[in-house]
Amino acid sequence: MKKYAYKNYIGDQDYVFVRCVKADEAKASFVANTLVEATVKTFFDVQGNNASEKPEVIADAIEKAEAVVFFLSGKSCESLEFRNNINFALEIKKHIVCIRLDKEELSHGMD
Length: 111
Known about the structure:
single chain, 4 helices, 22% strand
């Protein structure tokens, strides 16, 4: 499966922020690519990727996004940073979509 094929949207118009961990990149990039191809402005970040953005950039992107999409898996829920991103989005009352990728038991607070 191909990786995310576009540059992240950075601008003043509404956009969707998409986040996953490295282990889930193939599935998440398919969805992110599909969003862009459907003319949805998209900011896609893979936690654990060498090109991953700094935490301040991620927080800013979540805050400015119209909606956020998180790909949940056993691997993503092992990451405190990933869980903190979700909690931040909840705290600032963002429209959130969580896509569950596996049947692994989610950690406390993520279920």
